[in-house]
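Sequence, please.
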């Protein structure tokens, strides 16, 4: 009985917390903390919510252990966004930035009147952003601001208490029904 109770409570916590961590992407902040820093170019909003909710947001998985719930992402950049930090520019990164520059600069479209479309202006900003990164010296540092989406927060404690209270109430009701059969 004890094992079933713990298993059910952990399963409930897994669902509730996974849902709340997903909502952090809608809030564009970690619960009630300040909003995530916007991206450095182009469209407004955080990089974490790009691609219609896929990418990092869609990669978050939760598993229950014997006495725990663990949250993870298989994406290599998840940790740096969750915790923030610096990365060192490598030659491989510079090649990637050049590729992104050429991809973005190839999207420029002209209006029939000869002007540049609004979408093309955004791509120009994106292309210039990647060009600036590609021109950085190998060994340079890039600072990634913290955009936490998983971890401990006072709101997590509130959710844990609510789930525990609900589960204890179910046990209490079950015990009362055993003691007072009709």
């Amino acid at each position: 009985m004890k094992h079933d109770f713990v298993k059910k409570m952990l399963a409930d916590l897994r669902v509730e917390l996974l849902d709340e961590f997903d909502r952090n992407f809608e809030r564009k902040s970690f619960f009630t903390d300040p909003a995530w820093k916007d991206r450095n170019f182009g469209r407004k909003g955080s990089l974490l919510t790009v691609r219609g909710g896929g990418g990092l947001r869609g990669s978050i998985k939760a598993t229950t252990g014997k006495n725990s719930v663990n949250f993870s992402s298989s994406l290599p950049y998840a940790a740096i966004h969750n915790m923030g930090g610096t990365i060192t520019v490598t030659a491989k990164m510079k090649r990637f930035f050049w590729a992104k520059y050429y991809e973005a600069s190839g999207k420029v479209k002209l209006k029939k009147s000869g002007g540049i479309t609004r979408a093309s202006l955004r791509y120009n900003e994106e292309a210039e952003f990647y060009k600036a990164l590609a021109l950085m010296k190998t060994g340079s540092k890039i600072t990634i601001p913290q955009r936490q989406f998983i971890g401990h927060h006072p709101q997590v404690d509130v959710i844990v208490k609510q789930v525990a209270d609900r589960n204890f109430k179910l046990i209490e009701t079950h015990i009362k029904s055993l003691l007072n059969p009709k």
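The beta strands are 61-64, 69-72, 85-88, 141-144.
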